Amino acid sequence: MITTIDDDTNGFRLNLIPMALSSSDMSSRSLLEATLALASFHIGREEDALKHKVQAIKLLSDSFRSTTEQNRIAQFSTCMMLCVYSVFDSSDTTWNLHLQGAKSVIEAFSRLDRSDPSMAFMVHWLKYHDVFSVYSHRAEPSYTATDKNPELIMTLPESTAYNQQIIGLLGCSPELLGLISNINQLRTWLQTTNPPSARGAALPHLLRIRKRLLHLKQEILVRPGETSGAISHTRITLTAELYRIAALLYLFQVFALLPSTHTQIATLSSATTSQAHPSTLSSSPPSTSSSSAVWWNTSLVGSEDIANIVRQGLAVLDQLEICTSPWPLFIVACNVSDDADRIKMVGIIEAGGRARRVGNYQVVGSLVQAVWKRQDLAANERGEKGGLVVVDWRDLIEEGEMMPSFI
């Protein structure tokens, strides 16, 4: 349940398992134990899972201290597998710690390591976790209060045939994952840039990303092999489209961080009304109703426009028997305001949690309902109709508490 395409690109089956079984060194044994921990937890054998996890951590630690053994690829894979385990087990709060460990290990890869055939899989695996880790965490400035605001430099992913291919590990294309990473960068920059009047520099980048998302192509390229599992082209396509819809909704949330100046409004209005997509933006500033809720009047982001995109997301979810992708599911759910649709979303989240047996579904479900409550309270306080309340869900997490993972 951690890849949507089980073909000859499935690194979990074709790279990790052989690596775990082909050597008796501590790094490979730690990977085997981490894999057994994840498998045991998935089938409900939690005590066995805990034993395997503890052994994996011990062997991994020993391998780092060893002066004769440095199987960096196996060490990296163990860190990543422990990260996945931590997401599966909601009582384990160390997923980001293991992710940061994996990032440190991959930086120490030798030239030989980087030429390994499994490297493409490893890079995608790390990128996926890293992008959604950034999404999960609050924006932190990388400069002191006395520094000038950092210049906003952004490179969008290339729209090549390779980048348009849907990767089973990602659930979408590398191009789309790269655009989500760009939105993360803009959110961080906008939330840490002062004074607010300086934030207008983000507008051209937001509009470029919006155009790319509206016209994004994601292609299926299956490489079947003798050991390939069942492959559903429909499910692959729907999952990738759900990620695209969620990315658009996330982008609109970041739009709300822009300051309200007539120049930006005019640019926004003229640049977006030319698009023939139901998510067309219109023109007037947002205002803040609390530290964690932003009110979008229909003059800034039309409620009908957002509603159309949400309906597209709901239509995709209706066609998916089970949604095993927490991030787009969470994004769509947070934009649902109708009671009947909210009830439906609760059922979809619960069904996904039962099927995937991943602890973060419970966390996501609770967080969605907390967002709905905050939205309803903010709407009642304003006493206005026809608007949208955007809640920064990160403000609902107590300081020091674990941030949820959306992988």
TrEMBL record:
Cellular localization per UniProt: Nucleus
Pfam families linked: Fungal_trans_2
One GO CC term on file: nucleus
Gene Ontology BP, a term: positive regulation of transcription by RNA polymerase II
Major localisation: nucleus
Keyword Nucleotide-binding: no
Keyword terms, alphabetized: Nucleus
Molecular function GO labels: DNA-binding transcription factor activity; transcription cis-regulatory region binding
Coiled coil: none
Origin superkingdom: Eukaryota
Classification via InterPro entries: Fun_TF
Protein name: Uncharacterized protein
Lineage: Eukaryota, Fungi, Dikarya, Ascomycota, Pezizomycotina
